[in-house]
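User: I'm writing a short methods note and want a consistent example. For Helix-turn-helix domain-containing protein, I'll paste the sequence; you return only the structure tokens, no commentary, since I'll be parsing the reply automatically.
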Amino acid sequence: MPPHRRAAGSALFDHPTFIYMHALYSKALLRLVLLLGMSILIGYLCVSRSYHRVSLFEQEDFSWQLRKAHNGDDATNPLNAKVDGTRLIMEYVLSGSTPYSFASASLFFMDRSGKPALFDWSRFDKISFEARCFPAGTIRVGLTTFDDKLSKPDQLHTYRPPSAYIKCNQDGDRAELDLAHLTIPEWWLTLNKINPSDQGYSLAKVAQIEVGTTNASRVGIPSRIEIASIEMHERKYGYLYFLAAFLVLVWAGFGIWFVKQYAVALADNLHARMQKDLPLVAYQQLALEPHREREKSAILRLLATRYADSELDLETVVSETGVNRNKVNDILKAEMGYTFIGYLNKLRLTEASRLLVENSTASIAEIAYSVGYKNSSYFNKLFKEEYECTPKAFRELCKKEARKPAP
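Assistant:
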């Protein structure tokens, strides 16, 4: 690699802006990755825990009475029903002697004293279970809920029976029902003279859960229905509220921290630039010694003493030093790393930065004019390119730094 390119690359990485901002961005990136990972982990835990399940038979104070029903003497054999552990088992044979043959088994809820009870299931949104049928067919699973306007205690036919139909086979597939979207059978609405569109029901007063046959059930053969692992699904929104609050707080905190750190890094960067540029202001002491040759010394001396002259240009330097135009630029590029215009602007902007700090009463336009700029807008543009902020912002940042207590 050519020497001048190596020098340019080294200068880039040694530049104060690169050093301070690279440190800030590295620290911010590390915190961003950690915060993102923590947010994903907390989010996963909160969302997963918000989906709560509880076994029907493991609920606190859960007590029940097994009941069975069929239409008259329709069952050719006695209807057998039992609960084995957490399985509700119903065995039956439908004779098909009537148009509406059915058989059902239910868990009728009781309180501790053995009296009928109404359970509040309003906090649950779903119920799931494992259904197994021999032979395969369609079964009905439903609830019996108390209607304050219609239902009468001890008369279950006046309770609303929201239910759903599911396919069932010997493999024992798991089924899931949405408790908010069950259907009231048409026969019950007709029996109680209720408009068919009235499909409402309340989960706040549930009397029983029932499993039964349907019109599609096989007749004349021994049949068996098993309902196992009944679980109630509840959504705990407290976890989601916590997650939302956590994300807002930590990400807002990260944003505030980054803005503050950016301001500190910018102030440190400006301070470092001012310290680095001091040798240019004090050229007479630091710049002449390394450049003994007459032409180099003449050019550098002229620029160091006349940079504030707004009429100073390359032709003036050529005329007063006797060095041709190309050689002036070559000398400045080799010794200082700038072209004529770049070095002249560097001297002027360095002096301007000093005046902005030390002469707080002078306006921006006055400082621009004092260092050789006739146009304050052009001065502002060059200053912002050099220090990455306006002269006004530079002055304010330096004031804030000056007010900070010494460590």
